Amino acid sequence: MTLAPFNPTPRTLMGPGPSDVHPQVLQALGKPTIGHLDPQFVAMMDEVKALIQYAFQTENPFTIAVSAPGSAGMETCFVNLVEPGEKVIVCRNGVFGERMRQNVVRVGGEAVMVDDEWGTPVSVDKVAQALADHPDAKFLAFVHAETSTGALSDAKALCALAQQHEVLSIVDAVTSLGGNELRVDEWGIDAIYSGSQKCLSCVPGLSPVSFSAKAVAKLEARTTPVPSWFLDQTLVMGYWGGGKRSYHHTAPVNSLYALHESLRLLQQEGLENAWARHRAMHEKLKAGLEKLGLSFVVDEASRLPQLNAVYIPEGADDGAVRSALLERFNLEIGAGLGDLAGKAWRIGLMGYAAREENVVLCLAALDEVLN
Amino acid sequence: MTLAPFNPTPRTLMGPGPSDVHPQVLQALGKPTIGHLDPQFVAMMDEVKALIQYAFQTENPFTIAVSAPGSAGMETCFVNLVEPGEKVIVCRNGVFGERMRQNVVRVGGEAVMVDDEWGTPVSVDKVAQALADHPDAKFLAFVHAETSTGALSDAKALCALAQQHEVLSIVDAVTSLGGNELRVDEWGIDAIYSGSQKCLSCVPGLSPVSFSAKAVAKLEARTTPVPSWFLDQTLVMGYWGGGKRSYHHTAPVNSLYALHESLRLLQQEGLENAWARHRAMHEKLKAGLEKLGLSFVVDEASRLPQLNAVYIPEGADDGAVRSALLERFNLEIGAGLGDLAGKAWRIGLMGYAAREENVVLCLAALDEVLN
């Protein structure tokens, strides 16, 4: 077996993630590896923490990057906070709400489902009803931006309900962070997780997470050990917490260089500017897609700018179109997922991918392939 | 808050890991990110699998890289294989045996401890006795190369005992893979995990794992769901298994480029040659350390070539010496861990770090700082 070095063909990434990585982030990624307890690295980690706090708009001291992809960030929230027998109201309007349910079940919790149609936002009214019907619920869990459908839910209203009913909110912000408005402290979010590979323009593999003081208190009051050793935040905080950094596991050093650079770029641009850029690029893409006769899965009012799910037009071959885009134009768009598999495409405009050259390339390439 | 890009000072990494990353691996890491379902990436993943099989010397079809550091690889073995109430004989002769125990307890298993002094190998006789005393045990778990002490245990003899008693072996090869002899199929190892950042000369963040047919059968016969969704190998195999790659979580694309390159380099050198190189560099380092009057924690017979734990000489200030090495020579060596904290240093010769220029730099720098 003699293998050649791997040389990927550069692609334009306009799927559901990973999205285009900023060139400065790739550069940062390849910088020399140093030790995870090196004073230089520890100082950088303090900056990473401050930058995640900025991106989440929070002052939570408990703000870290989990050393694994977004689905481990999700699991971090559930394994640390939900104890066996506890009731969690889980909103399901796509793939990731269902994944939350599976997390609840695996830690021995009880999931009360609030279902909404794929492509629609989580119904605030139904959640209010569920909270009223289940006064013993301890958590409300929902996805802010459903990557499988492109629907944006009203996180502010949902978290207000959670506070009113004194339950903790657990919010999936994998696709929303950096792409649309998100204010952890102002909205009163208790536990939130995201991913590095969406609107942060970073490589996949890390998951920013933040817990409110109430979530930390819940964790500290546990009567059973956290079922996962790797994701046990009572141990991880020894490394991320202030003062002496004690060894828990070896931090993914180079990926954290990349996250540092991507968050630094976001902060340089300014969150509000980044949200506005995603919106502007979405408007331009939307106009072009409609000209091509494509229609959106999600109503305009709750449509995510950074994830555009459109129905596959009649007569078009799903796989053949995506392959042609990839092979002829080095352009990746996403397939449908779950209920939308074979029925929709998902066109991402995430982070560094949300720029004019990508929008016009995507529209022109789709035009050539479809017509 | 205006932050500058992070520019780490290049270091020579001779601690317990991360170790020096091969320059070609860093280059591979920074290559353009493509989609985790891109046909080019999927083809590369097939090569990664074949290369991990080579490194482990196994033909196990169930051979993957977990998308997280070595401690998640450890957890992958325990959460998938050990069910509540099952008895595991756990050998503890350092930090990582104790971590295995914690994993067993968290999945609801019962850990029967076989303790040996820190710095000594796992006693084959004690394990034989424990297996005889506990005919209801289902697993034998031990660390092949204890990173906290530098002791090598006789994995071949221990796995032979496991087979004789019809229990499954779970082996920690985080520090051994690529550094000393390891033959998964020949020795009959059932579940094994390693880390990317030790003797593979790769960046931290990935964990190669392999399960034997017997381990897979145990997983398939589970009567309870795997407690972790993220690490549930019945789901992950949908992505790594042959045929259609279905989405489970977003693979850490760039880190996998790096792992591909590091394994390719290992295969090019040849496993036996890599083992011999670690041994030769160790001999050279050992001669120099003894000249400096430093003595080893571990007896010669069970000393790891790639992890040299030496007692801190009387009169030397642990932190001051390590800081001087780092600040004056950009050389990192490791502190003691657990029982050996403040008592020993750990000098790594792992992967790309096991070369002559590192050995002479380390000896000369230690000489300057100590004398």
Automatic annotation (TrEMBL), chains A, B:
Record protein name field: Alanine--glyoxylate aminotransferase family protein
Superkingdom assignment = Bacteria
Q: What Gene3D superfamilies does UniProt report for this protein, alphabetically?
A: Aspartate Aminotransferase, domain 1, Type I PLP-dependent aspartate aminotransferase-like (Major domain)
Q: Name one GO molecular function term.
A: transaminase activity
Q: Name one Pfam family in it.
A: Aminotran_5
- Keyword Transferase in annotation: yes
**Cofactor(s) recorded in Swiss-Prot or TrEMBL:** pyridoxal 5'-phosphate
List residues of the Aminotransferase class V domain. 33-336
Segments of this protein annotated with the region Disordered: 1-21
What does the sequence similarity comment in the record state about its family? Belongs to the class-V pyridoxal-phosphate-dependent aminotransferase family.
Q: Does the keyword rRNA-binding apply?
A: no
UniProtKB keywords? Aminotransferase, Pyridoxal phosphate, Transferase
